[in-house]
Amino acid sequence: MTTEPTAFLTALRLSDSFLPVGGYTASYGLEQYLNEDRIEDGDDLRELITAYLQRVVGPCETVALSNAHAASAAGDLERLLAVDERLHAVTMPREFRESSTKAGAKLCELLESDSSSRDSNASGTQHVQDNSSTPATDGGDIVADFAAAIEADETPGHYPVVFGVVTAARGLSRLESCLAHAHSFVTGLLGAAQRLGRFGHTEIQSVLEALESEITAVCERHVDDDVAAMASFAPLAEIMGMRHEHAGRRLFMS
Amino acid sequence: MGYRDVAKVGLGGPVGSGKTALVRRLVPELVERDYEVGVIANDIMTQEDADVFRESFADLLPADLVEGVETGACPHTGIREDPSMNLAAIDEFTERHPELDVVLIESGGDNLAATFNPELADYFLFVISVAEGEDIPRKRGPGVTQADLLVVNKTDLAPHVDVDLDVIEDDAATVRGEDPFVFTNCKDGEGVDGVLKHVEREVLFA
């Protein structure tokens, strides 16, 4: 397998907490689990994030991302908007939707603005594609069209959907995109847990390592799912997310 | 309309230095001068704090121009490395109030190294309290040295905490060079005029 440097670096950039899209303000209900003393140690944390992966990230966000990637690669705006609409419909807690759409808008704004400078800098550069199914598209039109639809409030612009659009344009395969997104979701939650609770840095890394096989499993399981299969079933996490709206203490936006 | 179309003033500084008190002094004065003002407070912690904050401006500002932004226990990140959630809140302000003149962005309490991202704040004030110690300016934290205006607040407490204001003044002049600083007692409103003059001249008339 040949490594495509631009795609690889894009995956690193999008998975890094250095990416300025406000990810550090979202806990997706985790703050409320800690507010209610439902997480005691690293094992509890691992079990909870495993459940997020199996019931939200996999069947919901991975399906959205993968289908957005495919729609974007095919230049099909209508299909892309349908993916975004469905993800909005199946994301129950208000704060989850807000965290996702705010981060999505910022990612779109950020990468759309530097794609124009990238286009002018990279003219004439021809990258070798790896064995992924990603077509070699510059994605310029669909990215711009989708950004315009978000800007005009015609579509919510959820983060996994924008992530799919951006990664398709930059040559990541669908599976690579899903892995990068799931990994950054997990590290985001672990970072939130560490700031809210009392977890050691080595303990957090152990949890992350233990979750790697689950990240891979849920992405491989859901990467080819049809958009109609997109669903989320995590009632307690959703209840935590809704209670968080009225929490006595809140350091996070969700 | 978006965040690039409105003047933005950041207020940073350690916990308890009087950032909120200064915002409460500045808002009525700015409204009195016919500016349309929005206020964002980072890290207000609880819904109760948010309600208190909105109530304090209830007669001055529309409720939808007062917003709380949580920064996930990373106050410096919210104003420096990744201000995206603050910018998103400003975008919502300008969408609802295109005639908005200025947004005050109050950071969560932080350390002396906290500075504002220039894309978030056109002008930033760093507020310290004399009760935090006479040596704060001398430590040369980036907040103290890089702020557009250093505000030394709670001057009324100086005699009670063995602080010599002349020492603070000398140190502030040394570490800030040509850049301005003012003394305030926001509890009584002393010195707030000086802050307003700087903000008006450097931001609103600029």
TrEMBL record, chain A:
Keywords from the named record: Chaperone, Nickel insertion
Record InterPro entries: UreF, UreF_sf
Pfam family, one: UreF
Polar residues bias: start-end ranges: 121-136
GO molecular function: nickel cation binding
Region feature Disordered, mapped onto this chain: 114-137
Designated name of the protein: Urease accessory protein UreF
Species: Natrinema versiforme JCM 10478
From TrEMBL, chain B:
InterPro entries according to UniProt: CobW/HypB/UreG_nucleotide-bd, P-loop_NTPase, UreG
Keyword DNA repair: no
Locations listed in the record: Cytoplasm
GO cellular component terms listed in the entry, alphabetical order: cytoplasm
Chief location bin: cytoplasm
GO MF term list: GTP binding; GTPase activity; nickel cation binding
Transmembrane intervals: none
Domain CobW/HypB/UreG nucleotide-binding: 9-182
Pfam families hit by this protein: cobW
Keywords in alphabetical order: Chaperone, Cytoplasm, GTP-binding, Nickel insertion, Nucleotide-binding
GO BP term, pick one: urea catabolic process
Annotated positions binding GTP: G13, P14, V15, G16, S17, G18, K19, T20
Family: Belongs to the SIMIBI class G3E GTPase family. UreG subfamily.
Complex formation: Homodimer. UreD, UreF and UreG form a complex that acts as a GTP-hydrolysis-dependent molecular chaperone, activating the urease apoprotein by helping to assemble the nickel containing metallocenter of UreC. The UreE protein probably delivers the nickel.
Function: Facilitates the functional incorporation of the urease nickel metallocenter. This process requires GTP hydrolysis, probably effectuated by UreG.
Name of the featured protein: Urease accessory protein UreG
Organism name: Natrinema versiforme JCM 10478
Gene that encodes the chain: ureG
